[in-house]
Amino acid sequence: MTLSLSSPISAFPLKRLFFPTSLKPSIPTPVFLSLSLAKHCLNMSSVPVSLPKYDFQTNWDVPQFSDDQMDAVADETLKRYSLSRDRKRNESGVAIVWFRNDLRVLDNEALFQAWKSSQAILPVYCLDPRLFGTTHYFGFPKTGAVLRAQFLIDCLANLKKNLMKRGLNLLIQHGKPEDILPSIAKAFGAHTVYAHQETCSEEILVEKLLTNSLRRVVLPPVDIATSIPKTPKLQLIWGSTMYHLDDLPFGSSNVPDVYTQFRKSVESKCKIRGCIKIPPSLGPLPSGSLDEIGGWGCVPSLDQLGLNMEKHNGGMHFIGGENAALARVNEYFWNKDLLRVYKETRNAMLGPDYSTKFSPWLAFGCLSPRYAYEEVKRYEKERVANDSTYWVLFELIWRDYFRFLSIKYANSIFHLGGPRRVKGLNWNQDMALFESWRDGRTGYPLIDANMKELNSTGFMSNRGRQIVCSFLVRDMGLDWRMGAEWFETCLVDYDPCSNYGNWTYGAGVGNDPREDRYFSIPKQAQTYDPEGEYVSYWLPELRVLPKEKRHFPGTSYIKQVVPLKFGNANPRNSNQFKGQSHRGGFERRKGQRS
Ligand SMILES: Cc1cc2nc3c(=O)[nH]c(=O)nc-3n(C[C@H](O)[C@H](O)[C@H](O)COP(=O)(O)OP(=O)(O)OC[C@H]3O[C@@H](n4cnc5c(N)ncnc54)[C@H](O)[C@@H]3O)c2cc1C
After folding, report:
1. Cβ neighbours of residue 17 closer than 8 Å, sequence gap 6 or more
2. Ligand 1 touching residue 372 (CB < 6 A)
3. Nearest to 28 by CA among 332, 335, 331
4. C-alpha to C-alpha distance for 84 and 343, rounded to whole angstroms
5. Whose CA is nearest to atom 23 of ligand 1?
6. Which residue among 179, 278, 344, 420 is least enclosed by CB atoms within 10 Å?
C-alpha cells in the first residue's frame, strides 16, 4: 500500500480548475482519504493517498467549476449525444412535455417521444403548491430545506436555457398540473402530454387527476370530414432508473425482496438500455400566443416561493441543473480521477470527494442514471476497471431496487410496520428526544455533527445517514417515521423511494430479512473519524480538545440524552450512564451493509 502523506493543503484539489474531457490529466489528481479508511483499504496499491486537513473555514461548491466551465462540459456532452440533423420526426400536431423529476435534456425519453410525435412541442413545468406542503404524519415543511428549493430554481433556470439553445423554451406556471395542463392543451390543441412515470402515491394521484381532467378537454376534430372530437391523452414513460421497468426479468409485483437476489437477477438477465440521443434542434414551438394562459412565466425566486435563504454555515453547496450534473460527473470521474478509488473512500463523511455526490441531480432527474452507467463504462475502457468502478454501479442498483420495491409495496413503505407490516414494536414519539436528534443536541458528537451538516447543507453522507437512523431507532426508540420525515424535509437529494426504503430497512421493518442493524457509535467513530476531524468541523467547541477526546468529550460537551443500547459512548471516562446500558460491547452489527 502506498501512502503518500504529502502536504494536503498544497495538494488539495483544484478549486475551479478545469479539464474538458479532451484534456484529461495524465497524472491522476491525488486522492484524499482519511488514514483510518486507508488502513481498511484492500486494493490500493497504485493509489496515492493523502491525509486531508480540511480547514474549518472550508466550504465547497459542488461541482467546483465556474458557470462557463459547466456550460463547456454540458455542450461537449450534449454534442456527443446528439442525433444527426437529418433525423426526421414523423408525426403532426402539438405535443406537451410535462417536466417533473426529469429536469434534463439528455436521455429524456418523454422529450424525445414528444418531439418524434409532433410538429411542435411545448415544454411545461408546474410549480405545484403540494411540493411546499407538510409531511404526512408529523407536519414538517416539505421543502423545509430552502436549499432544496434553491436547487430546484437552479434546475429550472438551466433547463430553460438548454431548451432555448435547442429552439424551445420552458413554460413555468404556479399551480396543480391537473388544473394547468388541460387548459394549455386546449389552447394549443395538443394531442398528447408526455411525462415520466412516478411510483409513489402522491405522484400517481396527480397522474390520475390529470388523466381525468384531460378527458374533459374537447379538441376540434383533426379531420373535418369525420368530425370526431378528440381529447388529449397523458402518455407516461419510464425513465428514472438504470434498468428499465419493462426489461426486468420479473413483474413489478415479484421484485425480489432481498437486494442481492434483485441485483444478481438484473445483472445476469437484463441489459441497460443506451441513453436516448437528442436532436440538435427540438423546435419549433407551437404557433399562437401564450397571452391567454399568462405568458411564459418566470423561474421563481425564493422570495416568490415564500422562502428565505439562511446564512450558509459551511459544508457543501450543491449547484442545481443539468449542466452542473454533467460537470460533476466530469469532475469526479475524469478531472479528479476519483472513480478508481470510490470503493475505498465512499464511507467517509467530510468534503465533496469521498463519494460521487450524484444523488441531488439524480433526485431531480438532471442526471440520467443510464448516463452515469455509460460514463463508468467509458472510464473502464479508457482508464481502469476495478472494484471501485463496479461499486458505483452496485450503489446505483440499490437506487433502482428501492424504486422498484416502491411499486411492489406501494404505501406500506410509509407505514409504521413497513413493507413487512411488522407489529408490536415499541416506538415512542417523545418530542423532546426527537428535537435533540433533529437539532444535533444529543450529546453524541458523531450524531450531532451529522445532524448539523444535514440542517446546514441539506446533505449527509451515506455512513452518517445509517448511523443517525440507527441511533434514532435503536438507541432513542423513536418512531422511525419521525426521522424519515425530517430527512424528507431537509435532504436536497430527497427521493421517496430511497429515503423510505432506507429508513424501513434501517428500522428493521423493511423487507430485507436481516433485522438487527445496530451501528455502534464508538466503533463507527473509531473507524470512520478517528481524529475527530469530521465532528470538529461541525462542532467548533470540540476543536480545542485533543483529537482522541473529540468523540468522547465527557463533561466538556453537552450531556448525553440517552444511554447507548449496546455500550457507553465514552468507554474510558464517562460515568453518566453507568449501569444503564442495555448490554455490554458495541460490536453487535449483524447484517450491516458494507
Ligand atoms: C436513512 C437513509 C435515508 C436515505 N435517503 C435518501 C434519499 O432521500 N435520497 C437518496 O438519493 N438517497 C438516500 N439515501 C441513500 C444514500 O445515503 C445516498 O444516496 C448517498 O449518500 C448519496 O451520496 P452520493 O451521491 O455521493 O452516493 P454514492 O456513494 O456516490 O453512490 C452513488 C449513487 O448510488 C445511489 N445510492 C447509494 N447508496 C444508496 C442507498 N443506500 N440507497 C439508494 N441509493 C443509493 C445514489 O443514487 C447515489 O447517488 C438514504 C440512505 C439512508 C441510510
Report:
1. 64, 335
2. no
3. 335
4. 38
5. 357
6. 179
Kindly report the pTM of this predicted structure.
0.90
Q: Please give the helix or strand (H or E) that residue 318 lies within, else none.
A: strand 315-318
- Nearest CA, atom 11, ligand 1: 359
Measured by CA distance, the residue closest to atom 38 of ligand 1 is 395
CA-nearest residue for atom 5, ligand 1, is 499
Give distance in angstroms: CA of 498 to centre of ligand 1: 7
Give the Å distance between the CA of 164 and the centre of ligand 1: 32
- What is the bridge-based pairing of β-strands 31-32 and 49-50? parallel
| Whether residue 359 has its Cβ less than 6 Å from ligand 1 | yes
Question: Residue 68 and residue 63: Cα distance in Å, rounded?
Answer: 12
CA distance readout (Å), 495 to 103, 272, 429: 14, 22, 24
CA 432/CA 475 separation, integer angstroms: 15
Spatial separation of the C-alpha atoms in residues 450 and 415, rounded to whole Å: 25
Q: Which of these, 197, 206, 194, 195, lies nearest to 129 by C-alpha position?
A: 206
Give the residue whose CA is nearest to atom 3 of ligand 1. 499
Name the residue of 262, 338, 399, 494 whose CB sits within 8 Å of the most ligand 1 atoms, as the mutation to test its pocket.
399
Query: How many CB atoms are closer than 10 A to CB 307?
Result: 21
With a 6 A CB cut-off, is 392 part of the ligand 1 pocket? yes
Which grid coordinates belong to 138? 408529523
Cell of 499: 429515503
